[in-house]
Amino acid sequence: MRIGGGDISDLFNFLRGYVGVKASGGFPERFLNLCSRGNIPYWDVCCTNGTVFMRTTPEGYKKMRRCAKKAGMRMKTVKKSGLPFWLFKNRVHAGLAVGALCFVLITAALSGRIWTVSVTGCETVPQEDIIEAVGRLGVCPGMRKKQIDTHSVAEEAMSALPEVSWLSVNISGCSAIIDVREGVGRTVKKDDSPCDIVAAEDGQIQTLEVFGGTAVQEQNSAVLKGDTVISGIVENRDGGMSLRRASGYVTALTKHAFSTESRPLPSRKISGIKSRYTLLFFSLKVPLGARTDADFTENRFLTLGGAKLPIGIRAERKYIFEPADAAADDLADLIALEAHFYKAADGLRDMLTMSRTTKERRSNGRAIFSSEYGCLQNIGEERRLEAGE
Q1: Could you give the angle at which helices 58-70 and 28-37 cross, rounded to 10 degrees?
Q2: What is the pTM of this model?
Q3: What CA–CA distance (Å, rounded) separates 339 from 329?
């Protein structure tokens, strides 16, 4: 009995497995006839120089051995293929298959629940406030999607958030998307009250551009903090004076000084770290170790397409200290110098540094670092003008 080829037949043969057989010697025609009489399935027969190549099922291979013996032929297995042989070959990796199956089942079970909550459209209202508001109404990771009444949640959330004029809750897949609009219909009054532009720092003016008002200072003029640079008092064509809102762009070379003193290093050092991890799965927390009084805690969550999933791990660390050796002065000075430059960079982050001088001196065995920076800075700031001025 022969089994014809075809896509369906190939798939069926792969699922039940098949054996490639080589039979040589004896009488090939008698061997094939005996197989057909015994209803032994075989296909893809090829006969070359008295040697027969064919494929059969694992059960058919066992029956063929009797037919080959009667026909005086020697049988040999050439290849074993199909799903049963592949599973047997990879039986040591059965845990992977079980894990994959569990993953599919868990994913299917959780597909009906909310995994992530995101907010779009907010500008001034913090996203955390919106997520907290809808979370109290049941829109949070782990909640079943069928239990969420999006219309009721939107109405109650708008009542709890007066800064939000419109809010909607949309369920997309396993994500809840909160779309908000702020301040719709409210008018913003433009501040046109008269004012001067004054110097915010002492310095020498480098750039002076007047957009509105009257320039009081000139380029390269030295100004002190609080001096008027652009006046809001404008002379009219008829010779009278009127108050306007001054505007312009003023930059000046300014000087800034910073000083940092080194400090003794701690008298103890870290000798070891005890860690404890906790598995976070939606609202479920599974500790993976003994409880410890943690000095440091960090939560790490899985992300998918930039969205944070409610699956992660919490790391808690407890530091073990022991007395430290005498600290070297050079190390303490190096730490102080690094902190000094960090402090200066933070204080000058909105300025362009033009020059810098740094000096070191020692007092009471400690290093003191002093730096003076010359910076190009926007020094213009508004000062309101009263009608009586």
Answers
A1: 130
A2: 0.39
A3: 15
Per the listing, tokens 């600290």 go with 327
Candidates 155, 157, 124; CA nearest to 140 is 157
Rg, C-alpha atoms of the chain: 41
Distances (CA, A) of 229 to 175, 252, 257, 291, 351: 55, 11, 24, 64, 19
Taking Cα atoms as reference points, which of 64, 83, 63 lies closest to residue 22?
A: 64
The SS3 of residue 203 is strand
pLDDT tens digit string along 39-61?
888 888 888 888 888 999 988 88
Of 385, 82, 90, 93, the C-alpha closest to 213 is: 385
Distance CA 164, CA 129 (A): 11
* CA triple 249-253-259, angle to 5 deg: 125
Query: What span, in angstroms and rounded, lies between the C-alpha atoms of 300 and 298?
Result: 7
- At 363-383, the pLDDT tens digits run 887 888 999 999 999 999 999
Report the distance separating Cα 86 and Cα 243, nearest Å.
90
